[in-house]
Design brief:
By secondary structure, the protein is mainly alpha-helical. The model has no long low-confidence stretch (mean pLDDT 82).
């Protein structure tokens, strides 16, 4: 989101307020469990969830590594697909007219419905999970990159045309650079979906991953382990978002002072 530059102190203050809010909610959760004397199989306390995570740490590493690999690879392929499609449809409008209905139709189908088909077509291994994550995340990148290209100043393209440049030169010198901020913004949004899509695919067919860990915990009625899986999904997603924000700053340092993260 573009806007006026914000002082560093403002960002720290916002981060502290957010951290304090999370701490208050966790404290209220812990207190409500103990004061309400709720049994652990209904709602475990945060301290119990942490203790379970430590107890299961020997098996969690492999599950987290599997889900992270699926999410990162799917995010990379989905971003490349969305970015390239945005560039092609902007350069060749007829391609955009042909692909738009298919793209919009694909977004009306829930991931959990597509997962069985991906597993049947691509097998039970890594490929089906990566494809499912890529199909989930490419749309935000496509929309953001397309919007960024459309918002490019027409005068810049006219200058290139006035200097004798053709459509190819306008694409490489104007529209492609203009799509970078949009693609990175879409990548940041897509990162919030990547881990969830990987976990859904693991629910249906997987031998390892956070989704498999949650599925096994559900069958064992281990509610505290299910909460461990939920916390891991949130933490993994947060790590992805922070890494992408850092990559965005490295790729576009001139936007650091103009955008709020």
């Amino acid at each position: 989101m573009t806007g006026p530059a914000r002082p560093r102190g403002h960002r720290w203050r916002a981060a502290l307020i957010g951290a304090a809010t999370v701490a208050v909610l966790i404290g209220a959760w812990e207190a409500s469990v103990h004061l309400g004397e709720l049994p652990e199989f209904v709602l475990p306390s945060p301290s119990q969830v942490v203790a379970t995570a430590v107890e299961q740490s020997s098996v969690l590493g492999q599950h987290v590594a599997t889900t992270a690999t699926e999410a990162v690879l799917g995010l990379a392929f989905g971003t490349a697909l969305g970015w390239m499609l945005a560039i092609v449809t902007s350069a060749v409008p007829s391609v955009g007219h042909a692909t738009r209905p298919v793209v919009l139709l694909s977004q009306t189908i829930p991931t959990v419905v597509l997962a069985p088909l991906m597993i049947l077509w691509a097998g039970f291994g890594l490929t089906s999970k990566v494809v499912l994550v890529a199909l989930t995340v490419f749309f935000p990148v496509l929309v953001a990159a397309t919007a960024a290209i459309r918002e490019v100043d027409a005068e810049h393209a006219d200058v290139v045309a006035g200097l004798g440049g053709g459509r190819r030169h306008q694409l490489w010198l104007v529209r492609l650079p203009a799509s970078v901020p949009g693609a990175l913004a879409g990548l940041r949004i897509a990162a919030t979906y990547a881990v969830g899509a990987a976990v859904v695919s693991e629910y249906l067919a997987g031998e390892s991953g956070i989704g498999v860990f949650i599925q096994r915990s559900r069958k064992a009625y281990a509610v505290d382990q299910i909460f461990v899986g939920i916390v891991l999904i949130a933490l993994l997603t947060a790590v992805l978002v922070v890494v992408i924000a850092l990559l965005r700053r490295l790729a576009m340092p001139w936007h650091t002072h103009q955008t709020s993260t």
